[in-house]
Predict the 3D structure of the following.
Amino acid sequence: MPDTLRKPEPSFLSPMYTGRSQTLSQALVPAGVSVRKGHELVNIYCPVVVSNAGLFNTYEHLLPENTRCLPGVKQQLGMVQPGLGMSVFICPQGTKEDLHLPSTNCYVYYDTDMDQAMERYVSMPREEAAKHIPLLFIAFPSAKDPTWEDRFPDRSSMIMLIPSAYEWFEEWQAEPKGKRGSDYETFKNSFVEASMSVVMKLFPQLEGKMESVTVGSPLTNQFYLAAPRGACYGADHDLGRLHPRMMASLRAQSPIPNLYLTGQDIFTCGLLGALQGALLCSSAILKRNLYSDLKDLGSRIQAQKKKN
């Protein structure tokens, strides 16, 4: 299944099943996927189905309706909730050397008890939220890319991630993108203004260098990434998500035989989380420990280098 599905319909890409689906105790087995091409439904048969569309999209939108109520599916969905996320994309003018940009990620915390801070944050009136942002993630992707300056001379890139509740933006969910009105834009930009003041304290050399600033709300994430409730990083990474019972329950093997999950929702968020999710999924399908295979491969490569 694709990494992102823009404005998906439940029938856009969904697993097909064999077995007596009317009996929930009967284990259903995927036989492939159904893809809607225009008005035509195309069936693609295969012995194994792998979904990288995320836990919520896979279980709540891509499964057939009579399969979503299976006990194993409902149990896994009941253990997690969508994460909170707003993205700010910034283009500073200048190279990483001119701007002294770090290649490391920055995490800014405003409280020592993050669970309490987040609970207080998401429960407060939305008009007050921007004044009480509990944490910020700041990174400069261009500073990590050795080819960036050849492709985009005298420009850099920066990203900020800000936690935000979907409920704060819910009143505009039915409005078309780009036509949500001035109240929406003002509210969305209040988070940018609050976070940018912090950025300027941490990186004063960026003052007056910002060429463009674009913010994506949870509605933006939902539109472009088909991220349920705007959760572009999938299931929330709270303590419940990282509990041993949860980690043992949410695995690459789904409750439905031959349907596997991969990506960040079965490990952790981000590039490395998605990579580890892929390794875990591949190991489950192949019934072998690919981590051991990679370790052995690394040893053979090192030994070969020493010979040469």
About this structure: The radius of gyration is 22 Å. Confidence is low (pLDDT under 50) at residues 1-12, 20-27.
